[in-house]
Amino acid sequence: MKILDYYCHQGHQYEFFKTGHDFYLTGLDSLPPNWNKDSRPLPPNVTLIGERAAHSLKFDVVMVRSPLNPKRYSRFVDKGAIPVAVCQTTNPYHVLPSVKHIVWNSKEVMEKSKGFYDSKINHTFIIHGFDPKEFKPLGIEKNKRVLSVINVFIARKEYVGYDLWNSVNKKIGNICDVVGHGNEDLPQSIGEANNFEELIKYYNLYPVYFNPTNDSANPRARAEAMMSGCPIVTTNNYGISDYIKNGSNGFLSNNHDEIIKYLKILINNEDLQKEMSENARNTAIQYFNIEDYVKRWNSLLWNL
Description:
The chain is of the alpha/beta class. It has two domains: about 1-130 and about 290-304, Rossmann fold (3-Layer(aba) Sandwich); about 145-285, Glycogen Phosphorylase B (Rossmann fold, 3-Layer(aba) Sandwich), CATH 3.40.50.2000. It has helices at about 10-15, 50-55, 70-80, 105-115, 155-160, 160-170, 195-205, 220-225, 255-270, 270-285, 290-304, and strands spanning about 1-5, 20-25, 45-50, 60-65, 80-85, 100-105, 120-125, 145-150, 175-180, 210, 230-235, 250. The strands form two sheets. The chain has a seven-stranded parallel sheet with strand order 3-2-1-4-5-6-7. Strands 9-8-10-11-12 form a five-stranded parallel sheet, sandwiched between helices. Strand 10 (about 210), helix 8 and strand 11 form a beta-alpha-beta unit. Helix 6 (about 160-170) packs across helix 9 (about 255-270).
């Protein structure tokens, strides 16, 4: 199958391309995207292309991603491509009538947002998928600090919960670190992971991963941490309680003081760290496995 996609989220698209189709990836600015090969390897089934060059090609499917101008994908739909929209935020966005299928990464958001669209549109929930052979425990010694992997933290503060994170960090003794780009003005930032392997090492170096997000439908880094065997403490939003059982494979709370308590428990209890590490990874393998993700996406694409 020949699929045109628009560069939007490298982590998600790296996994999406594992569906194995013949992908052509163009940028949201119509230029060939600047794929960061250190952050994620560029799969061999992906061709980077400018949109003008793509105009001469015919595709089976064109991916629709916000904030894509509808006029851009309608050109390919007119030539026979089937449009498939993807929504990985809590905010639904407008699509052309030609879009008959939308894929969501949060079941709760999908159910709440269906009414925004025409009743003839089909909706499918497909959770993130990760390869347990890539995101894996390394057996290295843990530090005594707390990890969060968040890009452009302060600029997106309301969306990703910066105020909560900052307050927790101050009260717990400034032991929270942030990995991600766009955080140069944040004293707790330790920069961006230089490569894919270093990112996985970060997940292994810390005894606990803290996810403070308020309005993220399904943060990828949270599931990456779990797959790598890093126990999580997370805000309880958008259906994560379907996967996390409090005190077994992670901790859930929207209460400031409870979050601090849970972080301290994990940092100071190595036996609990090990138990939750194993439970978190087993949960991730059960629910966020790349094989299931690929199977569900390919079933949808071929049925279309």
